[in-house]
Amino acid sequence: MRGIEGVIRKRLSRLGHAARDYTDHVKEFYDKIIPVGLQVILYRWQQRSGGQKLHNRYILTDLGGVSFQHGLDAGKKGETDDITRLELDQHVFHCKQYDPTAPTFDQAADPLVITGTSVKQVKQGARCFVVV
To answer: How far apart are CA 46 and CA 9, in angstroms?
Structure first.
């Protein structure tokens, strides 16, 4: 099975869900858009005491990355955000921060594994970290 690793950083209060309901909410949303045969592993991170702050949002792939300062949601009418392409050294740095084998942050919960049910096509072997 092909896989993509993802990173999710959300405050539960912003979602309006209790911790247990969060898992159900995320699975219900993502299993409809993830293609059949693709497995996504979502990691939830939190700031370590005295550690690097979690704020910026990233899409980090095996080909490069971009950062968003406010988020990936649609936002309200009139709200905008800047998307910045990461330089190679920034890309490598941020990929290391979110590497599950030696992360900069603490895990807030066990990784969530979602197997897709959508009939969309995706590129084989893709690796992508999405930090929201």
So the answer is: 7
What pTM did the predictor assign?
0.66
Q: In this structure, what DSSP letter does residue 36 have?
A: T
| Tens-digit pLDDT profile for residues 66-108 | 998 777 777 788 888 888 999 999 999 999 998 888 889 998 8
Collapse the DSSP code of 40 into the 3-class scheme (helix H, G, I; strand E, B; otherwise coil) and give the result.
strand
For tokens 């709200």, name the residue.
79
Distance CA 105, CA 49 (A): 9
What are the residues whose beta carbons fall under 8 Å from the beta carbon of 44, sequence distance 6 or more? Answer: 7, 8, 9, 10, 107, 108, 109, 112
Residue-wise DSSP of 80-127: ---EEEPPHHHHHHHHHHT-TTS-SSEESS--EEEE--B-----TT--
Kindly state the DSSP code that residue 35 receives in the 8-state scheme: B
- Decide: 94 and 58 in contact? Cβ < 8 Å: yes
Contact between 35 and 62 (Cβ < 8 Å): no
- pLDDT, one tens digit per residue, over 106-123 is 988 888 888 877 665 555
